[in-house]
Amino acid sequence: MTARRNRPQEIVERALALSRADGCAVVVAERSSADLRWARNALTTNGTARGRAVTVIATVGGGQGTAAGVVSGSAVTADDVEPLVRAAEEAARGAGPADDAQPLVADVPHSPAYAEPPAGTSAAVFDAFAPALGESFARARAEGRELYGYARHQTVTSYLGTSTGLRLRHDQPMGRVELNAKDVRGPGSAWLSRATDAFADVDPRELDAELAMRLAWAARGRVELPAGRYPTLLPPAAVADLVCYQQLRADARDAAEGRTVFARPGGGAGPGGRTRVGEKLSGLPLTLRSDPYAPGLECAPFVLTDGSDTRLSVFDSGLPLAATDWIRDGVLERLTAGRHTAALTGLPVAPYTDNLILEAGGSRSLDEMVAASGHDGPELLLTSLWYIREVDPATLLVTGLTRDGVLLVRDGEVVGEVNNFRFNESPVDLLSRAVEAGRTERTVPRDLAKVCPRAAMPALRVPDFHMSSVSKGV
Question: Is this structure's pTM higher than 0.85?
Answer without folding.
Answer: yes
